[in-house]
Amino acid sequence: MIKQIDCPVCGHNVEVFDICDHCGWQNSGLFEDEKSPQGPNKMTLKEAKEAYENGEKVL
Ligand SMILES: [Zn+2]
Fold first, then answer.
1. Exposed site from 20, 28, 34, 35, fewest CB < 10 Å?
2. Rounded distance between C-alpha atoms, residue 24 and residue 47, angstroms
3. Which residues have a beta carbon within 5 Å of ligand 1, which is an ion?
4. pLDDT tens digits for 1-59?
5. Domain locations in the chain as residue ranges
């Protein structure tokens, strides 16, 4: 069974560990770390949220 969560950046529904179709963030399920980039993300979660709020691209 595929588990779905709310994207921690934009809040859209996304599969665990999948890349969000809406903002491009790859979530780390329950193991998000606000301070260091994980997986293919070049931004930290904190930076990604700020970029999303400012209408910038999440990397
Ligand atoms: Zn998203």
1. 35
2. 13
3. 7, 9-10, 12, 20, 22-23, 25
4. 779 999 999 999 999 999 999 999 999 988 888 889 988 899 999 999 999 999 999 99
5. 1-59
